[in-house]
Amino acid sequence: MDSIIFNLMNYIYYIMLIIIYLCIAYSFVFYTTSLQHREKPSRDIEDSYYPGITIIASVFNEADIIETKLKNLSDIIYPSDRLEVLIVDGNSPDGTGDIVSRWIKDNNADNFRLLIQRDNKGKIDALNIGLRAASHELIMVTDADTELVPGVLKSTAKYFADPCVGAVGPWILPKELDGFVPNMEMSFWITNNKMRTLESRISSSSLVAGCYMFRRSLQRSYPANVVADDFYTALNISSQGYDVIYLAQVMGSEIRTPHDLRTWMTHKLRKGIANLQTVMMFRDRFSISNKRSFIYYNKVMQHILAPIAFACFMILHIYYALYSVNVLNYFSYVYDMSSLYSWYLFMTNLPYVIWVILAADVLLAFGAVYSNRSAKRRIPRGNVDSKKSSVVLVAIAAIFSQFILLAAIVGLLMYSPSSKYKRIS
Fold first, then answer.
1. I need a labelling partner for 124 at 20 to 30 A (CA). Which of 81, 221, 337, 338 fits?
2. Owning domain of residue 228
3. Closest by CA position to 17, among listed 6, 9, 5, 27
């Protein structure tokens, strides 16, 4: 009976290991393939070319930062007659709407408009209000806590000269803050941004986060059950056959990031549930023949299969570690372990699966180091060359994220997220 259980656990381990390898191999595939691809082409644009753009910012109870946000949007370098800024306030009880209205009047900001969401049905409803009121084809969505650089619109809009491009998102990073959790979040963002940039080089990015621009003709509204608007936009536009570009330039920063582990884990859990729901919404939209299907099904693996595999992976590691300790205790009782020959007998009597585990762990560690160090060479353009991430912090964040995604899977099975999840930034 014990041998049957042992063999069964071996087979389970191999299956879990294959799934983990497939997720890790995803980065290697893109690193090697991206060497053969350059940035998505966009024709030369004259300096006088400025397409009309509508910026939509959904806000709720942002009285402490809304004036900073308005000032930031007014500093964007773009012709005012080609730019429209819509601030959609969720009827904030802290007076955010009044601050916006007063700021527009005091600054004679004729291209700024305040829209009130009377019943406050959440961020998605607010974005739909903005889309219905928008005057231009290109829509940029930004959060209240995202500071944008002045040239973000010009740098992003030029890609839409290519009719195959449906959405563009630049790098957005957290503000560099002191502390373990903020530094871990920064490393995690940098690594994910690099991956999305490589995705857009050879196919289409799976996500545009924090700030993104898209064609309104491809997405005139968000379904009411959407929670992760950025993830939904990328998948929706990709499923229609258009490219989603992830611009390798840092064009903004989030001024509010989790400072402690509990807040970080709560934030990631809510994001995990929202992303899982979004992935499942598109299960019938990507055909196998579509070149973007690889990225979509990889997201299915990363968000659903990998967390389950990772949990089994850790359990089996603990099991085999305890098994090895028991064998060592036995040899210590029978042999003199000060002898090298005794250690040789000990190691040769370990099951071969133990050595497979050790080899696999070494390869995974090598893959993490290689991925982190090579990403800079794979993305030699833009202003991201100096953005480095810590391998250790990324690994810690990834481990936490796998368990959080596992909890998100359980949460999604027990309770499907709806508009009750108001605003996930």
1. 81
2. 1-36+164-425
3. 9
